[in-house]
């Protein structure tokens, strides 16, 4: 019973970074809230953030496919950040794991610059949540807690 939460580049700056777009909540705040939510259902949460594409690929490969089955996750929540709009490598890593994932964006990517409207992930995602700020992560976790685990 494990869920992997992946955050891409510049999300380590949450709270400081363009707060009018991304809000005042920090990544540590999000991790804490999700941790409490998961623990209440006896689910383990693995939280990773990197500014490096290859490092994100390796985390996804590891927790999604290569680790022993006890260490592997059942599902993924990912905010690929700027890699949303550029990364075939991250898409391929997710596809390789065959683990279902939810794509989350804090901002509404459809109401911003046109280049943000295209995602390399959405067509293979179970769901896409955008524009709900940090609540999007909680909604995504709630979805997995509801749909993966019955007790
Ligand atoms: C983002 C939206 C992306 O376009 C942007 O590059 C990000 C954050 C979001 O959460 O709203 O870094 O994924």
TrEMBL record:
It is an enzyme of class 4 (lyase). Keywords: Amino-acid biosynthesis, Aromatic amino acid biosynthesis, Lyase. Its EC number is 4.2.1.10. The record marks 17 as: Transition state stabilizer. Pathway: Metabolic intermediate biosynthesis; chorismate biosynthesis; chorismate from D-erythrose 4-phosphate and phosphoenolpyruvate: step 3/7. The active site is at residues 22, 105. It comes from the Bacteria. The keyword Amino-acid biosynthesis applies. It catalyses: 3-dehydroquinate = 3-dehydroshikimate + H2O. Substrate binds at residues 79, 85, 92, 106-107, 116. Pfam families: DHquinase_II. PANTHER family: CATABOLIC 3-DEHYDROQUINASE (PTHR21272:SF3). HAMAP family: AroQ (MF_00169). NCBIfam families: aroQ, PRK05395.1-1, PRK05395.1-2, PRK05395.1-3, PRK05395.1-4. Homododecamer. Catalyzes a trans-dehydration via an enolate intermediate. Belongs to the type-II 3-dehydroquinase family. This is 3-dehydroquinate dehydratase. It comes from Psychrobacter aestuarii.
């Amino acid at each position: 019973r494990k869920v992997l939460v992946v955050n891409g580049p510049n999300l380590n700056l949450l709270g400081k970074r363009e707060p009018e777009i991304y809000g005042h909540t920090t990544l540590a705040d999000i991790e804490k809230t999700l941790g409490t939510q998961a623990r209440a259902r006896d689910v383990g949460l693995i939280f990773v953030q990197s500014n490096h594409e290859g490092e994100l690929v390796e985390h996804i490969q590891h927790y999604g496919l290569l680790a022993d089955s006890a260490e592997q996750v059942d599902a993924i929540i990912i905010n690929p950040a700027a890699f949303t709009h550029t990364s075939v490598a991250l898409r391929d890593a997710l596809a390789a794991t065959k683990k279902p994932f939810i794509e989350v964006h804090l901002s509404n990517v459809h109401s911003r610059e046109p280049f943000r409207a295209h995602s390399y992930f959405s067509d293979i995602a179970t769901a896409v949540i955008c524009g709900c700020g940090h609540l999007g992560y909680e909604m995504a976790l709630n979805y997995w807690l509801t749909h993966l685990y019955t007790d």
